[in-house]
Structure formats: C-alpha cells, structure tokens
From TrEMBL:
Molecular function per GO: 4 iron, 4 sulfur cluster binding; metal ion binding
Name of the molecule in the record: 4Fe-4S domain-containing protein
Residues of the 4Fe-4S domain: 1-60
InterPro entries assigned: 4Fe-4S_dom, DUF3786
Residues spanning the signal sequence: none
Keywords per UniProt: 4Fe-4S, Iron, Iron-sulfur, Metal-binding
Amino acid sequence: MALSVIDLCRDVLPQTNCGDCGYRSCMALAGMVVSEKLSLENCPHLDAETIQRCSRELAAQYSQGKWLKRDMAEDALFWARQGSAAIDIEDLPERIGGKIVERAGQKVLELPYFNDVVHIARQGISKNDGSEITRNEQVFLYIHMARGGSAKPSGNWKSLKEFPNTVSKVVSMKAHVEAPLKEKFSGNPAGLAKRARKIGGIDQTGDYGTADLAFLFQVLPRVPVMLVFWDAEPEDGFEAEVRLLFDQTITGHLDIESIMFLSERLKDLLC
Ligand code: SF4
C-alpha cells in the first residue's frame, strides 16, 4: 500500500514535532520522504523494523513516480533535446561556429565553450575528455543549438537592461552575479585579472576609459561577454562596480534565461 504524507505522519512518525531530524515538524519530514526520497532513518525515534517495512512500500511508490516532486532539470533537458532533435549537426558550424570532426566513426560538432571544448553528437553532449557535462549546461547548449542564428558578434555592447523584457532578470543579475563579484574582488583588481586570465579572459582594459579592468570572455564562438570592473574608492565613498556587457546579437543566439545561466556560470568560474 502506498504511503502518502498524511499516512506517514499519522501512522508511522511519532508526531512529537521534536525537531531532532532537522525539520520543524513530523509533517515536514514526511513531505521530504514522500516527495524527495529522503530516508526515513532521518527520524531517530523509529525502530529498525518500522523503517524496513516502510522503506519497502516507499521504494515501490518511488519506482512508479507516485507523489514524487517533478525533476525540473530533467524536464528542461527533455524539452531542450526535443527542440533541437531535427537539427542536422553538419549545419551547425555555419550558424553557431565550431567545426565538424569524426569521433568513433560518426560526425560530431566540436564547439569551444568557455575555456574548454564540448562535443555535440546526435546522442548527447560531452566534454573533450568524454565525460558528461551537467544537465543545466546541456540545456543551455541545446537552446543555443536550436536558437542560434548565424549573426556574428557586432562589437556593439549592451547591458542586460537594454534588452527587451529583462526587468526581473536585471534584479537577479545584480543579486546573483554582480554583487558576489563585487564582494569578492573589491580592493583586489589584480586578483580578478589573474582569475580572468586563468579562465581564458582577454584583457581589453585599455578600451574602457575609466574602468580599472575589462576582460572579454568568448563563452561560445558567437557569444562573447565583456566584464567591466571599477574598484572601490573608499576615500571618495565609491563602492566597487561590476558590469557584464553582451553583444547586441546575443538574443539571436540565446533566450534571456540562458543569458542569466551563462552570467552565473562566468561568476562561478571567476569566484
Ligand atoms: S525527529 Fe521524528 S519525531 Fe522528531 S520531528 Fe522529526 S520526524 Fe518528528
């Protein structure tokens, strides 16, 4: 018999809401067990026989996907794969760059990605060394494959807020990309420059008048990103400033969610 959150809370857990499991109530732990496969062993007040009996019932309902929280990343990957399923890999270099190479007897797109290379084949995407990339990165690359037009970078840089429909994302960009970079590198532009070079950034500081640093990152062959940094000037009351700039053609290659993804990925690599 399947165990719902209510069944588990009412018939199995002690209902003392003691918090020893790290959750504030027995109901909260029951929710995690049913929807996210958290082990019942997290409640230290259950005997081994009860845990064993319930675990058998839970395993059966997990295998049917009953009451399990949906795996959003898996859904996104399925959707993104579907969107690019009809694409002929040999057409891709013309649109998104990279080159076709032979691997194990089949044609594969070799695509520069940050300071690495990925291989895009009909059955999936892998790193240069054959290892898998994360699901979120796969979604990002499938979206680029499906959306990528043939426009080459124009050299006209824009901040996120200059693209349409980005109001809510501008807030996320400040909170999740610019603020952590400011915090990490305020007073340490040399540290930022060192890190930027290490992940393949090209120094463009001379081209950005008042900026203390400007680095160009070739995220994908058709998708460059510019990071511009002004260091703090405490004596004048100025905090450090960080801005990411995108080529004006970027929305022909990526949707806004994907632009956010690459920005956060760049921040993670720098930090
Ligand atoms: S440790 Fe057990 S009894 Fe205590 S709150 Fe968690 S589930 Fe309930």
